[in-house]
């Protein structure tokens, strides 16, 4: 087993050694909209079933157009 000692050992695998910061994986806007729509769809409150469906459809349309 190899054990590294020093500054490079303290850096997380997703972080560059130069200190540029962590690499981010950002969700697409359309994915966030679809997830919000699913959450609304699952709420047991009148009207959220239809609203959730419309939000999911808007998210899918945004995905179709590249957002």
Summed over residues and divided by their number, the pLDDT gives a mean of 78
Number of helices: 2
Number of strands: 0
Encode the helix/strand succession as letters: HH
User: Approximately how much helix is present in the residues?
Assistant: 40-55%
Outline the low-pLDDT stretches.
none
* Helix/sheet category: mainly alpha
Global shape: elongated
Key traits:
67 residues; 2 helices; 0% strand
Q: What this model shows, in words?
A:
The chain is mainly alpha-helical and 67 residues long. The chain has a domain at 27-67. It contains two helices and no strands. The chain has helices at 29-42, 48-64. Helix 1 runs antiparallel to helix 2 (48-64). The termini are far apart. The mean pLDDT is 78.
Question: Nutshell version of this structure?
Answer:
The protein is mainly α.
Write the topology of this structure.
Layout: H1 29-42, H2 48-64
Helix pairs in contact: 1-2
């Amino acid at each position: 087993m190899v054990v590294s000692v020093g500054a490079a050992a303290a850096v997380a695998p997703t972080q560059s050694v130069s200190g540029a910061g962590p690499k981010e994986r950002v969700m697409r806007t359309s994915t966030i909209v679809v997830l919000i729509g699913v959450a609304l769809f699952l709420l047991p409150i009148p009207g959220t079933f239809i609203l959730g469906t419309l939000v999911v459809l808007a998210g899918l349309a945004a995905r179709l157009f590249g957002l």
